[in-house]
Design brief:
Layout lengths: L2 H40 L4 H41 L4
Helix pairs in contact: 1-2
Length: 91
C-alpha cells in the first residue's frame, strides 16, 4: 500500500462522514437558529425551550434520512472491502 492509496481512503472516508453528518447537523443548526431568534424576540431564556425542539427535529431528520445514511455507509464499506486485494498488492 502506498501513500496515495492511504490518502485516497482518508479523503473518501471524510467525504462520506461529511455527507452522513450533514442532514443532522444542518437540521440542528436551522432549528437552533430559529429557536434562538424566537428567544431573543420574546426574551424567554428557558434552556429546555432550545433543547427539546432541536432534539425532536434531529430525531425526525434521522428517521427521514436514516435509510439513505445506512445505504451510503454500506456502499462505502463494500467498496473498501472490494479494494482490499488491490491495496495489499494482490490484484
Amino acid at each position: 500500500m502506498n501513500t496515495t492509496g492511504v490518502l485516497d481512503i482518508g479523503v473518501q472516508a471524510l467525504l462520506v462522514a461529511g455527507k452522513l453528518a450533514a442532514p443532522v447537523l444542518i437540521t440542528a443548526l436551522v432549528v437552533g437558529f430559529a429557536i434562538s431568534l424566537l428567544q431573543s424576540i420574546t426574551q424567554i431564556q428557558e434552556p429546555t425551550l432550545a433543547f427539546v425542539p432541536k432534539a425532536i427535529a434531529v430525531a425526525i431528520a434521522l428517521v427521514v434520512c436514516g435509510n439513505w445514511m445506512i445505504s451510503t455507509m454500506i456502499s462505502f464499506t463494500t467498496t473498501m472491502f472490494d479494494r482490499i486485494p488491490s491495496l495489499l498488492g494482490g490484484g
